[in-house]
Amino acid sequence: MLINITQAKLDTRQKTLITAALLHNATTSIVFSGDGAYAHVVEQAFLAECVSKSNAESVLHVHVIKEDATARGVTLSQAVNPLDYQGFAALTSTFNQMVTF
């Protein structure tokens, strides 16, 4: 599942969806785009917890659109993969399911 986060903060329901996706999919990718570039900083503890739950059957990849982070003055943490828009487009083609919030 591909989850595109465009909001600066996640609510409880969104966190529950991310946790459930991680538990039920072989691969889950989260992309922080637009104002979501802030969320990767705000939600660092939650993301670290999710990454710690990753295992051989359930893998979580965390990406941030680097242009969006730069435009908002957000420094990318080492826990995320910088992604350009071309890479994001390529990533979307690898998933059958995509959720944006």
Automatic annotation (TrEMBL):
GO cellular component assignments: cytoplasm
Gene3D superfamilies (UniProt xref): DsrEFH-like
GO term, biological process aspect, one: tRNA wobble position uridine thiolation
InterPro entries, per database record: DsrEFH-like (IPR027396), Sulphur_relay_TusB/DsrH (IPR007215)
SUPFAM superfamilies, A to Z: DsrEFH-like
Protein name per UniProt: Sulfurtransferase complex subunit TusB
Organism: Alteromonas australica
